[in-house]
C-alpha cells in the first residue's frame, strides 16, 4: 500500500490575489510583449494583459512554490523535498541580476512550458511544466507581462539544490523530459461548441495543474496520465502525507455523488455538504481556487463531472443506521466505538453526519472511504484547519490526537468509522498508524500499560 511518500511535488503556500475576469485570449493581439522598465505605468491593452497574467498566476499557483513563508513574493527559496534531496525554487521576480529580469519572452516560455532554463539545462519536474505545457501562448504572454511589469524586483540569489553529486547532474533530466513531457500547445482556434467543457479541461490539465497532486505517479515519478485518455488520470495521488483524492466519477470514493454546484462550493469556500478541505487542498483553496471566477469554477466542475469512474465495477454506498443506534444505546463496547464517543462524537455526532459546513460528515464520505487511509490517520494525529475564504470566513478546526490516542486507538477508531453508517473501506492497522506518525513527525504515542 502506498503510504506516505515524499515526491517531487510541492505544496507550500498559495497566493491570494483579487480575481480579475479572465480576458478572452482572442481579444489580445499576437504582438510580442516589449520589456519595459518595471516602473513604467501600464495603460490600456497592456494593463489588461497584466491583469490577465495576474489572474493566471493565481490559477496556476506560482506563489505556492516560489514564495517562501515570510519571504518576498516570488523571490523563491522554498525547499521542495524530493527522493534525492531538496530542490529550492528560484527567484522569479524581474530582478536583472538574481531573478528573471533578463529573460526574453521566449526564454520565459521555454522555462514555464518546456522545463528548459535560460542556460539550456533542464529544470527538475518539481516545476510543473508538464501541465503548464497546456497553456496557450497568449496566456503565457499575459503571465510574462505580469511578471515583468507588476511583480516587484527582489535582489535575492537563488539557492542551489542540496542534491549531492552525481545525482545533481542535470543532463539525465533531459532524458526524463524527452520521455515524459508533452509538447507545448499552439494557440489553436476557440472551440466551436462545448466552450465550457473545453475551458474546464484547459484549466484542470493546464494552469491549475490538478493532476500534479491528484494523479498517481509511475516509477519515474511521472504522472501516469496527463489527460483523460486513461482512467488513471486524476484517480488519486499521495502528496506530503495526504491522499489527494480520486476526482473521477466513482460514487464511493470519488466525486460521483457531488453535484457541479457542490464542487464549485468546495473550490470557492473550502467546504460543502460532503467534505471540508484539509492538508494541501486547504492551501490550494485559500490561495488559488477561491479567487477564480465563478464561470471558471463552473467550467472545472462541468469537466470533472465528465470523468468516468476509475473503477468501472464500483458501487454507491447506502446509508445504514445500525451504528448510530448502537452508539446511542451504548451497546457497542468495542475500543473503536468507545474511542469515537469519547473523542469524536461531540463534533462529528453519533450519526457520523456532523454539521454541514462546520464539522464535515464522516458517514458516506468519499474521504473516509478511500482505500488508502493515510489522510485519515494524518488528520487524526495532527488535526486540521479549514481554509479561510471570502465565501466562508469562519474556519473551524479539529484538534490533533497524537498525544492522547495510541496507534491502536487510532487504528480502532478509524476502522470503526470506515465500517459504520454505510461506509465500506478496509480496516486500519496499528502498524499503518505508526508509519504515518513517524512520516509526518507527529508526537510519540501516549504511554499506557498495554503498550509500555
Ligand atoms: C509545484 C511547485 C511549482 C509551481 C506551482 C511553480 N513552480 Fe516554477 N519552479 C519550481 C521549481 C522547484 C523550479 C526550479 C527547478 C530546478 O531548479 O530545476 C522552478 C523554476 C521556474 C523557472 C525557471 C527559473 C530559472 O532560474 O531559470 C521559472 C521561470 C518558473 N519556475 C516560473 C514559474 C511560473 C510563472 C509559475 C506559475 C505559472 C511557476 N513557476 C509555478 C517550482 C514550481
Ligand atoms: C498541491 C496539491 C494539490 C493540488 C494542486 C490540487 N489538489 Fe485537490 N486535494 C489535495 C489533497 C491533499 C486533497 C485531500 C484533502 C481533502 O480532501 O481536502 C485534495 C482534495 C480535493 C477535493 C476533495 C475531494 C473529496 O472527496 O473530499 C477536491 C474536490 C479537489 N481536491 C479538487 C481539486 C481540483 C479541481 C484541483 C485543480 C484545480 C486540485 N484539487 C488541485 C491536493 C491538491
Ligand atoms: C472539535 C471538533 C472535532 C473533533 C472533536 C473531531 N473532529 Fe474531525 N473534523 C473537525 C473539523 C472542523 C474538520 C475539518 C478540518 C479541516 O478541514 O482541516 C474535521 C475533519 C475530519 C476528517 C476529514 C473529513 C473531511 O471530509 O474533510 C476526518 C476523517 C475526521 N475529522 C475524523 C475525526 C475523528 C476520527 C475524530 C476523533 C478521534 C475527530 N475527527 C474529532 C472537527 C472535529
From TrEMBL:
<feature type="domain" description="Cytochrome c">
    <location>
        <begin position="331"/>
        <end position="421"/>
    </location>
</feature>
<dbReference type="InterPro" id="IPR014353">
    <property type="entry name" value="Membr-bd_ADH_cyt_c"/>
</dbReference>
<keyword id="KW-0479">Metal-binding</keyword>
<keyword id="KW-0408">Iron</keyword>
<feature type="domain" description="Cytochrome c">
    <location>
        <begin position="195"/>
        <end position="308"/>
    </location>
</feature>
<dbReference type="InterPro" id="IPR036909">
    <property type="entry name" value="Cyt_c-like_dom_sf"/>
</dbReference>
<feature type="binding site" description="covalent">
    <location>
        <position position="347"/>
    </location>
    <ligand>
        <name>heme c 3</name>
    </ligand>
</feature>
<feature type="binding site" description="axial binding residue">
    <location>
        <position position="348"/>
    </location>
    <ligand>
        <name>heme c 3</name>
    </ligand>
</feature>
<keyword id="KW-0472">Membrane</keyword>
<keyword id="KW-0813">Transport</keyword>
<dbReference type="Pfam" id="PF00034">
    <property type="entry name" value="Cytochrom_C"/>
</dbReference>
<keyword id="KW-0732">Signal</keyword>
<dbReference type="GO" id="GO:0016614">
    <property type="term" value="F:oxidoreductase activity, acting on CH-OH group of donors"/>
</dbReference>
<dbReference type="InterPro" id="IPR009056">
    <property type="entry name" value="Cyt_c-like_dom"/>
</dbReference>
<keyword id="KW-0249">Electron transport</keyword>
<feature type="binding site" description="axial binding residue">
    <location>
        <position position="66"/>
    </location>
    <ligand>
        <name>heme c 1</name>
    </ligand>
</feature>
<feature type="binding site" description="covalent">
    <location>
        <position position="213"/>
    </location>
    <ligand>
        <name>heme c 2</name>
    </ligand>
</feature>
<dbReference type="InterPro" id="IPR008168">
    <property type="entry name" value="Cyt_C_IC"/>
</dbReference>
<dbReference type="InterPro" id="IPR051459">
    <property type="entry name" value="Cytochrome_c-type_DH"/>
</dbReference>
<keyword id="KW-0677">Repeat</keyword>
<feature type="binding site" description="covalent">
    <location>
        <position position="210"/>
    </location>
    <ligand>
        <name>heme c 2</name>
    </ligand>
</feature>
<feature type="signal peptide">
    <location>
        <begin position="1"/>
        <end position="18"/>
    </location>
</feature>
<feature type="binding site" description="covalent">
    <location>
        <position position="65"/>
    </location>
    <ligand>
        <name>heme c 1</name>
    </ligand>
</feature>
<keyword id="KW-1003">Cell membrane</keyword>
<dbReference type="GO" id="GO:0020037">
    <property type="term" value="F:heme binding"/>
</dbReference>
<keyword id="KW-0349">Heme</keyword>
<feature type="binding site" description="axial binding residue">
    <location>
        <position position="214"/>
    </location>
    <ligand>
        <name>heme c 2</name>
    </ligand>
</feature>
<dbReference type="GO" id="GO:0009055">
    <property type="term" value="F:electron transfer activity"/>
</dbReference>
<dbReference type="GO" id="GO:0005886">
    <property type="term" value="C:plasma membrane"/>
</dbReference>
<feature type="binding site" description="covalent">
    <location>
        <position position="344"/>
    </location>
    <ligand>
        <name>heme c 3</name>
    </ligand>
</feature>
<feature type="binding site" description="covalent">
    <location>
        <position position="62"/>
    </location>
    <ligand>
        <name>heme c 1</name>
    </ligand>
</feature>
<feature type="domain" description="Cytochrome c">
    <location>
        <begin position="48"/>
        <end position="151"/>
    </location>
</feature>
<dbReference type="GO" id="GO:0005506">
    <property type="term" value="F:iron ion binding"/>
</dbReference>
<protein>
    <submittedName>
        <fullName>Cytochrome c</fullName>
    </submittedName>
</protein>
